[in-house]
Design a protein that fits this description.
- This protein has a 3-stranded mixed beta sheet, covered by helices on one side.
- The chain is mostly helical.
- It is elongated.
- The longest helix is centred in the N-terminal third of the chain and has 26 residues.
- Strand 2, helix 6 and strand 3 form a beta-alpha-beta unit.
């Protein structure tokens, strides 16, 4: 962020912490005082207020540190997105935004099969296989580590379109449960699950 780019107060650095968030950071200062102070109401109020201020400061420092890492960032994701040239969409869940950021970071440089695999793994959370068909100018992304369709497919498609050569097409292949994998499941047990649940059932 360039100096003078934003006016004071124009950037939101996270919401004001609530008491429940600050509570774990608040020290009990009364335990450091002699017992005769414990009965004095004014002293307890002073120590309580001081503890709250200390807790608030510790929370802010810890929360700020979390924004330096993609896996723990929340309001700081906006800065990661700006740095990487990504569009910020605050309506998306933090996890979906993190996936796009991870994919962008992994996709820096010349596009290779390993890069495409790493980007796809950032969205699937499991093993991915990339099969190339050079003569046909296409490749296939197979999700083999997890069953079903990854939740943030639009984000993955966006990331692949950004890193792949323009002349290459691609398709996806997903892993689902087949009937013979359900042999240990009784009919009553199957009826208690939806069709979508059965398709990704691990047995």
């Amino acid at each position: 962020m360039a100096y003078g780019e934003y006016q004071y107060g124009s950037v939101q650095y996270g919401a004001e912490p609530d008491i429940e968030s600050v509570q774990p950071y608040m020290p009990n200062l009364m335990k450091y005082l002699p017992p005769y102070w414990h009965e004095i109401r004014e002293m307890k109020e002073i120590q309580k207020t001081t503890g709250e201020e200390i807790g608030n400061s510790k929370y802010i420092v810890d929360n700020l540190l979390k924004q330096c890492f993609v896996q723990t960032a929340t309001w700081g994701l906006t800065f990661w997105e700006r740095e990487l040239g990504l569009t910020t969409d605050s309506s998306k869940a933090y996890e979906h935004r993190r996936e796009i950021i991870w994919a962008k970071l992994r996709g820096a440089g010349t596009t290779t099969k390993v890069m495409i695999k790493n980007v796809a793994m950032a969205f699937s959370g499991g093993e991915v296989e990339v099969q190339e068909y050079p003569a046909e100018y296409r490749f296939v992304v197979r999700f083999i580590g997890v069953k079903g369709i990854p939740a943030n497919m639009p984000g993955l498609i966006q990331s692949l379109n950004e890193i792949k050569p323009a002349h290459l097409a691609y398709t996806f292949q997903y892993t689902f449960t087949v009937w013979n994998m359900l042999s240990n499941l009784t009919w009553n047990g199957a009826q208690q699950r939806t069709w979508n649940e059965l398709k990704v059932w691990e047995g």
